[in-house]
Amino acid sequence: MAKPIHISPETFDRIAGSLDRSPAAVRGRVVAIERLMERSLTIPGMNRAVGLDFLLNFIPVVGSFIGAAMGSYMLWEARNLGMSKWQMARMAGNVGTDWALGLIPLVGAVPDFFFRSNTRNLRIIRRHLDKHHPATVTVDVQG
Fold first, then answer.
1. Among 80, 101, 108, 138, which one is most buried in terms of CB atoms within 10 A?
2. Which of 63, 76, 121 is nearest to 95 (CA)?
């Protein structure tokens, strides 16, 4: 059995502290994680973008936990931005709903095709950034 990896709080702070904590950098990271999780590839013939979150549902139970862990990264970034507890609770609800639906083997991929928790959470973070850090606003051009 593999030994669990233990990281001291000091080491974690050193690693996480090396990330640029500016609102513009946070915006870039949350947009990147949302793109990876929800829109990283297109299903041929359907012209419908899906991501890692959708694909992870085909790994029974474990895939849902991995998707929830990756989606929780956005919550961590929201906390670092100082977002309200209400906003973070809504985001946690989105991740939790996605996680619970994903626990249903194979069928869990269907709701994930329509309920995009990471996209919803990105929208919440963008509203916060647009209101409190207007200099970080970017124009999205999608083709």
1. 108
2. 121
Matching residue, tokens 């500016």: 22
Cα separation, 28 vs 77, whole angstroms: 11
Distance CA 55, CA 67 (A): 9
The 10s digit of each residue's pLDDT in 52-78 is 998 898 888 899 999 999 999 999 999
What is the rounded CA–CA span in Å between residue 25 and residue 27? 5
Instruction: Give strand pairing partners of 43.
Output: 48
Whole-prediction pTM = 0.81
Whether residue 49 contacts residue 36, with contact meaning beta carbons closer than 8 Å, is answered with: no
Task: Dump pLDDT digits (tens) for 80-119.
Answer: 899 999 999 999 999 999 999 888 877 778 888 788 999 9
Tokens of 65: 């936990």
Q: Are 106 and 90 in contact (CB under 8 A)?
A: no
E strand or H helix that includes residue 19: none
